[in-house]
Amino acid sequence: MILQTIRVKNNSLSGNTSVPRPDFEGFIQEIAGDVCHEQSPSQLKLIRAKLYELLTKGITADVIFQCLCREFLSTKSNKSALAEEIKPSVLKFAVVFEGRCRDGSKPIMHLEAFLARTMALI
């Protein structure tokens, strides 16, 4: 579908035609930025609503975990990149909570627990 959209917008496809990011990736980047900006229970409550929105739109928990980790572990100087010394711990907890999410029945609980743990590390 992404290629069809690009084709409609641009009549000629070439090797240097840019592929737009899906909207949900930008939304997940915003969530990661929120986690890094403020670490509080009220912030976590706001983030929970955003996670619910992603899950109700059909974005699976494993995709959300993957995109969050990509944002947190990026080396770019963006607002959601973490300090180098806590990146291994964040990755460890992402693996732990994603495994629990696969075994459990409510992905929102595991996503929220992962983000709460990340906030605690920050």
Give a description of the structure.
Helix content is 69%, strand content 0%. With 122 residues, it is mainly α. The chain has one domain (24-121): Up-down Bundle (Zinc Finger, Delta Prime, domain 3), CATH 1.20.272. α2 packs antiparallel against α3 (41-56) and α3 (41-56) runs antiparallel to α6 (107-121). The relative contact order is 0.15. The model has no long low-confidence stretch (mean pLDDT 88).
Number of helices: 6
Number of strands: 0
Series of secondary-structure elements, N-terminal to C-terminal: HHHHHH
Q: Provide the β-strand percentage band.
A: under 5%
Rg from C-alpha positions? 16 Å
Tell me what the CATH architecture is: Up-down Bundle
So what's the CATH class?
Mainly Alpha
Q: How many domains is the backbone divided into?
A: 1
Determine the CATH topology. Answer: Zinc Finger, Delta Prime, domain 3
The separation of the N and C termini measures 38 Å
Q: Note the main sheet.
A: none
SS-based class = mainly alpha
Quick structural summary:
Helix content is 69%, strand content 0%.
Give me some keywords for this one:
mainly alpha; 122 residues; Zinc Finger, Delta Prime, domain 3; 6 helices; globular
List the helices and strands and how they pair.
Elements: H1 2-9, H2 23-37, H3 41-56, H4 61-73, H5 87-103, H6 107-121
